[in-house]
Input
Amino acid sequence: MQRGKFIVFEGIDGAGKGTQIDLLVNEIKRQGRNVYKTAEPTVSSLGGIIRDALGGFIKRDSYELSAMFLADRINHNVNPVNGICHFLDMGIDVVCDRYYYSSFAYQGIDADLEWVMKMNLECKEILKPDVCIFLDANIALCDERIEKSRFEREIYENRSTLEKVRARFFEVFKMLGGKENIKIVDASRPIEEVSSDIVNIYNNLLK
Output
């Protein structure tokens, strides 16, 4: 059986990941392939604790959050029922909304970046994606989208932090060099244009 493809979407808040993920999932199904959509933090009990912290309900140190994300990510990979490895081994494509790149960019602002990267990249239980699709959108546009779609903002969802996070993403991509398959897509364009580029990236994985 052919192993499934592991596709990760990244981007600052408001970049349009949810919309583009749904469009790609629909395209994968249209092509007759099986696909599993997932996200981090996960729906596990630990993922719920992380979401409470992101929502500002419980204050967590950046190092603590980094370690919590790591534990949640390990389970996300190895869980025998709904883990990433389980689905890939079954020949099912996995599309994930955020992965360790987000830990690097978000928690890596206040926690030691090299430490956050090392514990994720050197953990044998954490898979490297076949591709990371980074949606790069204008900060003002992202802020506008957040304002329209959120009842309350999460702790990172302010313009000053978004600017730092975007810069950190690009710093991380440079540090990773050619070790990861990272595709940067201009997400400030019309939805259809962005989706077309993403579908092309996916199709190239199948060749």
